[in-house]
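In response to the reviewer comment on reproducibility (Comment 2.3), we provide here a single inverse folding case reported in full, input and output, so that an independent group could reproduce the run without further information from us. The structure tokens appear first.
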């Protein structure tokens, strides 16, 4: 944290670990020039770094959703997140977490930069993406196998999980197929790691909040598909009427459903379902820890 992160040399050196594509790195360095030429932006970037990487409990992350990202430096979030490299590496080393886990976790920055550009037509990081990536760089979200996991304390009563319960929140990164054996292995890896990181905590199980837990998927996809196998592992305890699936399946929601792409079997199947009058909800599901660690 003592190193000056607002230098070209620091960003280039750090990128040996983050693995941004050359195009993404060039965009970041262009933003860096804008920042270091503006004293107010230097002060703001330094404040962001200090606030984000202050020491906190694993359950007490920092919410940056309300922070205003400068229009003239829309990639400043990425530059600030790079400043946490040393502290993140120290955490992984102290807990003997493999290099592959570190590499897979930070790879989400490059992936999210690319997706943000597709959504917006230019390089910009939205506040919610900034907030998401902060969780990676402060060791709240850890990528294990095919999935990502985050320790969470439930706020709200849902029957299967209730206020005060400790769970491992499951996130599904973009990246292709979901082989069921790899999914089950990821759960086991997560149970082992988080029990080691927080031995004083008893985790009730796993939760997932995603369009991939939409009950309607069973009307669209084959019962033997990996996505349905993933869904069937969960007991659904809540449904949300939203259209978040557009972001993950299509990047953007068009004004006319006929314009939805059909580049994949999933895109085509969901498009036909929507055109026939169907809708895709998001689901929240639970897997008890005993089911994974039996």
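Designed residues, in position order:
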């Amino acid at each position: 944290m003592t190193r000056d992160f607002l230098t070209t040399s620091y960003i280039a050196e750090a990128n040996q670990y983050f693995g941004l594509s050359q195009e993404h790195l060039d965009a970041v360095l262009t933003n860096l020039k804008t920042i270091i030429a503006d004293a107010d932006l230097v002060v703001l970037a330094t404040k962001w770094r200090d606030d984000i990487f202050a020491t906190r409990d694993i359950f007490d992350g920092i919410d940056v959703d309300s922070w205003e990202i400068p229009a003239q430096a829309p990639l400043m979030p990425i530059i600030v997140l790079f400043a946490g490299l040393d502290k993140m590496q120290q955490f992984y080393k102290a807990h003997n977490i493999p290099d592959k886990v570190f590499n897979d976790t930070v790879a989400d920055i490059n992936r999210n930069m690319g997706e943000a550009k597709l959504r917006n037509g230019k390089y910009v990081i939205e506040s919610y993406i900034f907030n998401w990536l902060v969780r990676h760089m402060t060791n709240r979200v850890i990528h294990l196998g095919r999935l990502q996991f985050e320790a969470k304390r439930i706020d709200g009563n849902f029957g299967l999980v209730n206020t005060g319960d400790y769970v491992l929140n499951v996130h599904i990164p973009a990246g292709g197929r979901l082989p069921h054996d790899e999914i089950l292995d990821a759960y086991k890896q997560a149970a082992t790691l988080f029990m080691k990181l927080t031995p004083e905590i008893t985790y009730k199980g796993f939760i997932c909040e995603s369009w991939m837990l939409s009950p309607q998927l069973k009307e669209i996809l084959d019962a033997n598909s990996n996505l349905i196998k993933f869904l069937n592992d969960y007991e659904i305890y809540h449904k949300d009427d939203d259209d978040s699936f557009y972001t993950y399946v299509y990047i953007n929601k068009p004004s006319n459903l006929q314009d939805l792409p059909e580049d994949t079997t999933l895109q085509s199947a969901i498009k036909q379902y929507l055109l026939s009058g169907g809708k895709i909800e998001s689901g929240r599901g639970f897997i008890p820890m005993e089911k994974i660690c039996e």
